[in-house]
Amino acid sequence: MTTPLLRLDGIAMQYGKGEASVTALSGIDLEVNAGELVAVMGASGSGKSTLLTIAGGLTVPTAGEVTVGGIYLSTLSAKRLAQLRRRTLGFVFQDFNLVPSLTALENVTLPLELDGWRGNKARSAGHDALRSVELDDRAGAYPDDLSGGQQQRVAIARAIVGQRRLILADEPTGALDSTTGELVMRMLRRRIDAGAGGILVTHDSRHAAWADRIVFLRDGRIVDGTRREAPEQLLAGAGGRHV
Ligand SMILES: Nc1ncnc2c1ncn2[C@@H]1O[C@H](COP(=O)(O)OP(=O)(O)OP(=O)(O)O)[C@@H](O)[C@H]1O
């Protein structure tokens, strides 16, 4: 049996303590294999972002274990965890977190340079990543000179630059018009088909349709991890809440 790229085992997450505490996730078991894109859908507040930050080792769960490529994140020192994040994981968040004083290309190559890549090699990988989101012609532009959609594409290029094997995306198409949104989904799909694995948090059933599997969260629990069809039907079961 092959080792899953990502494994969440009995994950629970509680924010705060006592009466003010919020249970964001409980009893989450989820595996993502190489070559597989899993969409996570659910109403606002159902725990999607929490699941993603736990999968990426940014939040330590209250209970349960996360393994990435068979490595238990809980066993890693802060330094090793940061290294694994830089080398293996690509994050795309709702806020782009671009560094304003760096060009688009420098933003994209930053994780590689932090990891000791030589300048030329890093720049070449950065151009490749920008090309895959059709933005290489703006490589020298600063974030302030780019539109919101272009900034989002730079953030996506940074998430996939180099050899990242696990891509974690939180509404990656949020700031994009539908044509560019589709370009990003196609690019993500290509990466997955080339052997990466990924989780895509989305409210948009058209984007979820690019996934191999849809997992639906309700109140911090997985409702249905098997159905590939008709996300609208799953959403209709969300206690009447709009997602
Ligand atoms: N840092 C935090 N401190 C306290 N509670 C939090 C924190 N982050 C999230 N929560 C709570 O945990 C629950 C799950 O939140 P989460 O952001 O994971 O949901 P979500 O499905 O991603 O929502 P959205 O679609 O609105 O982004 C919510 O009740 C939220 O209020």
UniProtKB/TrEMBL annotation:
CDD domains attached to this UniProt entry: ABC_MJ0796_LolCDE_FtsE
UniProt-listed Gene3D superfamilies: P-loop containing nucleotide triphosphate hydrolases
InterPro entries hit by this protein: AAA+_ATPase (IPR003593), ABC_transporter-like_ATP-bd (IPR003439), ABC_transporter-like_CS (IPR017871), ABC_transpr_LolD-like (IPR015854), MacB-like_ATP-bd (IPR017911), P-loop_NTPase (IPR027417)
Any one GO molecular function term: ATP binding
This protein's UniProt keywords: ATP-binding, Nucleotide-binding, Transport
Residues in ABC transporter domain copies: 6-243
Database matches in Pfam families: ABC_tran (PF00005)
Name of this chain's protein: ABC transporter ATP-binding protein
Lineage: Bacteria, Bacillati, Actinomycetota, Actinomycetes, Micrococcales
